[in-house]
């Protein structure tokens, strides 16, 4: 027996809602055939409804056979996304978190946030929390390469897709910088500075790494070396020393200070990896052993002019990465605090410290 017909149901409105429901994302443009298939309506009926909805301003015709909804797509499901932040003490991490929160609010997505606190044990516990929350997707921002397989395995076992920021995780979609290219940008600039200011007389190149992050961030230091030597071939004869600053400016500074106490070199080029991603040429007089004082780090003029004294945390430049890049890509930026407009404009656009 057929179900009784609802006398209050207007079929034309039902059919129109099915046409509008065929558009599942903002800005999505669909041909007539796809709209008919998604709505389950005959093409002739779908065409008449599209024509009517276009006249009413609810549908926009954007091509010979393409249509786009002028309305916000109907919610098919409220997605729940888990986000494990790297930490809340660093500006770049804060900007990534704020960007995700804004995007989630704009799209009506529930964002469940936890803080890894730059700690591998906490990152693993947070993974368990997000699995228990039954999220639809996880965005993971944690720095330790050694625990990446364990964190990824938790989500894989729970059948939760994973996006990994900055540090690759097995089976995850990677979202991060082109580290080698970022290093090349900084290395070429610093090589030019050494050539213009010191006539390429650099005794030692000090690379301050973030070893626990693994091999991918290390490519930035590799690119830095290649870039410096490409511009200034004399640096092939300079000594190269690698220290571990764990991505923290204070620890990197102390590691550099300790190295300078025992080093015989007088002119250094220092490159810091991680969140303290700065490059700095350092003139270090041997009679001031154990001291790294303001005025001994010089900020470079991109036009080859006079050097400007800086504080002990000053730098020749800083590689920056935008927390959310255009078209899914992160851009690198080399900025000098006061004078580096020319180099910065060619390198790209960014708004956060290198991480």
Fold and architecture overview:
This protein is an alpha/beta fold. The chain folds into 3 domains: 20-69, Arc Repressor Mutant, subunit A (Orthogonal Bundle); 80-175, Response regulator (Rossmann fold); 179-347, Rossmann fold (3-Layer(aba) Sandwich), CATH 3.40.50. The protein is 37% helix and 20% strand. The protein has 10 helices and 16 strands. It has helices spanning 11-21, 32-39, 43-55, 91-107, 120-132, 148-157, 179-198, 215-231, 249-262, 341-347, and strands spanning 29-31, 59-61, 66-69, 80-85, 110-115, 137-140, 162-165, 173-175, 204-209, 239-244, 267-272, 278-283, 298-299, 308-309, 317-321, 332-335. The strands form 4 sheets. A 6-stranded mixed beta sheet has the order 10-9-11-12-15-16, with helices on both faces. β11 and β12 form a beta hairpin. The protein starts with 10 loop residues before the first helix and ends in an 8-residue tail after the last helix.
Q: What is the CA-atom radius of gyration, in angstroms?
A: 27 Å
How many angstroms does the end-to-end distance come to? Answer: 67 Å
> Based on CA inertia axes, which overall geometry fits?
elongated
Strand ordering within the main sheet: 10-9-11-12-15-16
Give a quick precis of the structure.
This protein is of the alpha/beta class and 355 residues long. 37% of the residues lie in helices and 20% in strands.
List the helices and strands and how they pair.
Elements: H1 11-21, E1 29-31, H2 32-39, H3 43-55, E2 59-61, E3 66-69, E4 80-85, H4 91-107, E5 110-115, H5 120-132, E6 137-140, H6 148-157, E7 162-165, E8 173-175, H7 179-198, E9 204-209, H8 215-231, E10 239-244, H9 249-262, E11 267-272, E12 278-283, E13 298-299, E14 308-309, E15 317-321, E16 332-335, H10 341-347
